[in-house]
Amino acid sequence: MGKTLSIQNVKKSFTVDGQKVDVLKDINLEVQEGEFIAIVGHSGCGKSTLLKIIAGLEKNDTGLVTVDGKEVNGPGMDRGMIFQEHRLFPWMSIEKNVQLGLKGLSKEEKTKLSDQYLELVKLSEFKKAYPSQLSGGMSQRAAIARSLVSQPEVLLLDEPFGALDALTKIELQEELLKIRERFHNTMLMVTHDIEEAVYLADRIVVMSARPGRIKDVIKVELGTYRDRGGSDFAHYKKKIFDYFFEEKTVVPEYNI
């Protein structure tokens, strides 16, 4: 199984109020094809920035990011990204939103693909609806369909279920596992929900407070079907919680 994603010695800083703020430092990670990686850490530690660098939406200061051996120099169809907000265009139907990234295809081909992925996320009946007519969970389903329709090798998820109620979140977590089982995408998810990380991920990357470094990479050996109430599940949750409580330093938060 080849390495789909490689992150080597990545550093990133921003200038805030005229001062340099180090956000990420010495990030090294190898992600295998088909893996599900969850990234957890304190607010402001650079988790979302790292995801944007992989997506090609931010440029790392130093280091190298490659997908299938090709350097990431900007956005590409080999990577799809889902944000906490669905970011659907309100003046377009759900069908048109899903088709937005499809280039060089006929109208019939676009319709066939969008129908396929809207059926996958159980939104076939709502393809002519507009985002304002959908619930938050349904809007996120549409965002997932939009990201998957271009058939990316790597799916990046930036707290996609963070704004949803608990039951809808659990439902979409289950749908995400079904999508992974069907398409075998490599997935990286940023989350503040430790239970979500343990439930979904093959490995959990624990990051330090800013500047974000990788403190540990925890392999979750719980099998495919995981019992949220089980003692082994609780063991992994506690292990990650313990990392957070080790860090006593309080640093100013930035949206990074």
Brief rundown of the structure:
With 256 residues, the chain is an alpha/beta fold.
Task: Please explain how this structure is put together.
The chain is an alpha/beta fold and 256 residues long. The protein has two domains: 3-78 and 152-246, Rossmann fold; 89-151, no CATH class. The chain is 32% helix and 26% strand. It has seven helices and ten strands. The chain starts with a strand and ends in a 10-residue tail after the last helix. Pfam families: ABC_tran (PF00005). One of its GO terms (molecular function) is ATP binding.
Low-confidence spans: none
Order of helices and strands: EEEHEEEHHHEHEHEEH
Counting DSSP H or I runs of 4 or more residues, the number of helices is 7
Morphology = globular
Number of domains: 2
The average pLDDT score comes to: 89
Please state the structural category. alpha/beta
What name is given to the CATH topology of the largest domain?
Rossmann fold
What name goes with the CATH superfamily of the largest domain? Answer: P-loop containing nucleotide triphosphate hydrolases
Task: Give the name of the CATH architecture of the largest domain.
Answer: 3-Layer(aba) Sandwich
> Biggest sheet, in brief?
6 strands, mixed
Q: Specify Rg, calculated over alpha carbons.
A: 18 Å
Number of DSSP strand runs:
10
CATH class of the largest domain: Alpha Beta
Strand numbers in spatial order across the main sheet: 6-7-8-3-9-10
User: Percentage of helical residues?
Assistant: 25-40%
Strand content: 25-35%
Alpha-carbon distance between the two ends: 32 Å
